[in-house]
Each structure stands twice: as C-alpha cells, then as structure tokens.
Design a protein that fits this description.
alpha/beta; zinc; Rossmann fold; binds beta-D-glucopyranose; binds zinc ion; D-glucose binding; 2 domains; binds NADP nicotinamide-adenine-dinucleotide phosphate
Length: about 375
C-alpha cells in the first residue's frame, strides 16, 4: 500500500528588535518582530546606529497626536523619524560604511510638489511620514531604503548629526518665513542685514533652541520664552548666542512693555492652544506668527479688534511643517558651522545617550521628557 507524504514548510523570517506604538492608543513597547512585518522602501540596506527622540514621538506615545496613523493593513507602527544608520552593503551609489539619514516625509506620488521632491507642500494630503503617519519609522535594527530619501551624514558630524532631521523642519520654516517677508518692500535693516528684526520663540525644547540658533546665525535679535527660569544648559545657550530670555509665568505684558512688538513669533511648545491668543498682541506691523508646535489641548479665538488690527497691519499667521532634502543639507551646514560659532552650545545639544539594551530607560525617556533635556539619542549596539 502506498502512503501520501505531506511536507509542511513553515517559512520563518529573521526577527529584529523594534520600538512599536499603536496610535491613536497611548503606549509603547520594545519587541521582536518578523523582518517581513516592517515596511521597507528600497534596496539600500541600512543598520540603525542612532535614533533621536522628538516631542512628536512623545505625543504619539502618550496618545495625544491626532495626526498619527497605523500603516495600511497593520496593527502597529514602528516609531522613530530621527535616525542615522550605516550602509551595510554597497548599493546604488552608496559604499559600505557610509552614514545616512532618512528623509521622513514621503510624497503622494500624484501632486506636482511631491513629484519634485517637496512633499512638505503636498497638495493632496496623501503623503506619508515614517514613524508618524502611515508608514513604519526607524526605531528598529535595520531597514531598506531608496537613495532618493537618503541624506549623507559626514563622519565629522556623527556626534550631533541626528539633529539634522528636526533642524531640517526649522530650515524649511525659516526659508518660508523669509519668502513670506519678500511681500514687504523693505524688510532688511539700514545696513542690509536682519539685525534690527526681533523674534520671539515660545518654548525652549530642542525645537525652540534650534530655531534660536538658526535665527541668531541669520542675524535676528531673539527672545526665548518659557513659563519658568532657564535651566543651566539653557543659560549657556542664552549667553553664548547672545539671546534674551523671558519668564512668561505671569503672562507677556511685561515683555510688551519692555521690548515692544515682535517681527516674528514662533510657537514651539506643543502645549495649550491658548498660548497663541496670549502672544498675538505682541505681533508687530507686517509681522509673522508661525505655528510650529502641535497644540495638545485648548483653542484660541481672535475678536474683531484683533482681526481689524491684523488686516490694517498686514499680519500673517502661518502653519510651518516638515523639511525636505535641501533643508537637511542646509541643516548639516548649520550644525558644522555652530561647532565653531557656538562651540559650548554645540557640545550641549545632545544631553544624554541611552543604549537600546537598557529597555526600561528607553521606555522611560520615550514617555517623559527629562529635566534639562535637549536631545536624547538612543544608541543601537
Ligand atoms: P518639547 O521637548 O516638549 O519642548 C516643548 C517646550 O515648550 C519645553 O521647553 C516646554 O517647557 C515648553 N513649554 C510648554 N508649555 C509652555 C508654555 N505654556 N509656555 C512656554 N513654554 C512652554 O518638544 P520639541 O521636541 O521641542 O517640539 C516642540 C513641538 O514642535 C512639539 O509639539 C512637536 O510635536 C512639534 N514639532 C513640529 C514640527 C513641525 O514640522 N511643525 C517638527 C518637529 C516638532 P518645559 O521644558 O518646562 O517642559
Ligand atoms: C517631524 C516633521 C513632521 C511633523 C508632522 C515632526 O515631528 O519632525 O518632519 O512633518 O512632525 O508630523
Ligand atoms: Zn520630529
Ligand atoms: Zn502630494
């Protein structure tokens, strides 16, 4: 008698460590996933070296960012949009050992801005953002990417290069603001610089500090504000970059009395939207109020007087989001120049590194900001 023999083949994929979230629900885990469960984007094989933690990551982890979504057909999202990795195998113009950073927002493939590499101005709204919105991020052992989305990081910037991603968002924002101000027949000062222009930055997190550094490098006079006294590290930034500081715990009236109005105000807090109403009276004629932080509560309104004033005085309120490849490149130029211009601040930008193997600590810093923190870097080893 003959028997039929059935052979069961079970395909197994290698496992890799990854940090995952399940938006819109709060929570974060470090877990092992099958490599085939993760989104990949091209042929360049990259091993993760560092991830940065952004205020946006914490808003996702704490279930506060309504704009965060799972990838299609999946029940988890790999977190992380700030990453530096090393190319593992020569491919597509990259050599083994090259350091690269991924561009996090990727285009809809349809609109003209996305087709020319500027999904920061996507017209359909169908773009995706690694680790935030619709595709997996880079808090994982490795990923495959398309050279179009990779920025080379010079080895001399391996220490602070992780800041090129958040800084790219700021470079794009300042480029946009300077373009907006081209509407004013003369916005430069008597000597052709921007030294007479005053900017107010609300919030002293990494975003507030990077805005300050770029604006000081661009020549504007800057006030940073937070509702407390500056930390020791913030004090070093303030002194070295010759920036002013305002404690806003009692509101902004005193600042208006002592300094007057501002040409540029940026909300870099990610706090309550009520802040916007508080600072609108400080915005000067022909001024720009940039909304950069994602408020997590509240609302703001403008009464008819404030609206009349905005009309009479050509005021602009603008949403500012996301940098693309040219802005990553400009960010690297600034990071390199600050090593010379602001050496003490430059050394203080990374406040701490945490090993991915110290899982308890990684989860802690993903949930909550530390006192005195600027940027925490997760190191994959
Ligand atoms: P962060 O580390 O949480 O920093 C927020 C800062 O704002 C902290 O210094 C905080 O003070 C301060 N703050 C909170 N409430 C305040 C208030 N009422 N008045 C003044 N200051 C206040 O966050 P981050 O990484 O710098 O990011 C800031 C925001 O930008 C987040 O919402 C993030 O999602 C967003 N973001 C947007 C983009 C974009 O493309 N638009 C890009 C990156 C990030 P303490 O230090 O005392 O807590
Ligand atoms: C990222 C930006 C992104 C924005 C909106 C930020 O944290 O750094 O590149 O466009 O969040 O999701
Ligand atoms: Zn970010
Ligand atoms: Zn688009």
């Amino acid at each position: 008698m003959r028997h039929k023999v059935y052979i069961l083949v079970i395909l197994t994929y290698p496992l890799m460590k990854a940090i995952i979230v399940k938006p819109p629900n709060p929570g974060v885990e470090i877990t092992e996933i099958n490599e085939n469960e993760a989104n990949n984007y091209g042929k360049v094989k990259i091993r993760t070296l560092y991830n940065g933690i952004c205020g946006t990551d914490r808003e996702i982890v704490n279930g506060k960012l309504t704009l965060s979504n799972l990838p299609k057909g999946k029940n988890f999202l790999i977190l992380g949009h700030e990453a530096i990795g090393v190319v593992e195998e020569p491919c597509c113009g990259f050599s083994q050992g090259d350091l690269v950073m991924p561009v996090n927002r990727r285009g809809c493939g349809v609109c003209r801005n996305c087709l020319i590499g500027r999904p920061d101005f996507c017209e359909t709204g169908q773009f995706v953002e690694a680790g935030i919105h619709g595709i997996d991020g880079f808090m994982r052992e490795e990923w495959y990417d398309d050279p179009r989305y990779l920025v080379r990081i010079p080895k001399t910037l391996e220490d602070i290069g992780i800041l090129a991603q958040p800084l790219a968002d700021i470079e794009k924002s300042i480029e946009e603001i300077l373009n907006i101000q081209k509407r004013v027949p003369v916005w430069s000062c008597d000597d052709g610089t921007l030294n007479c222009r005053k900017a107010l930055i609300i919030g002293t997190g990494p975003i507030g500090i990077l805005f300050t550094l770029v604006l000081r490098t661009t020549g504007l006079e800057v006030w940073m504000a937070n509702r407390r006294e500056p930390t020791e590290i913030e004090q070093t930034f303030i002194e070295e970059t010759n920036t002013n500081y305002f404690n806003s715990s009692n509101g902004y009236d005193k600042l208006k009395e002592s300094v007057g109005k501002f040409d540029l105000i940026i909300d870099a807090t990610g706090a309550d939207a009520g802040i916007i109403k508080q600072v609108i009276p400080l915005l000067g004629r022909n001024g720009v109020l940039g909304l950069f932080g994602f408020p997590i509560s509240g609302s703001f309104s403008m009464d008819f007087n404030a609206i009349q004033d905005a009309i009479h005085a050509n005021k602009v309120i603008v949403g500012l989001v996301n940098g693309q490849k040219p802005h990553f490149q400009q960010a690297l130029v600034h990071l390199a120049s600050w090593k010379t211009l602001y050496p003490k601040s430059s050394r203080l930008l990374i406040t701490r590194t945490v090993s991915i193997n110290d899982e308890k600590e990684v989860l802690k810093v993903l949930k909550e900001k530390e006192h005195g923190e600027i940027k925490i870097k997760i190191v994959w080893e």
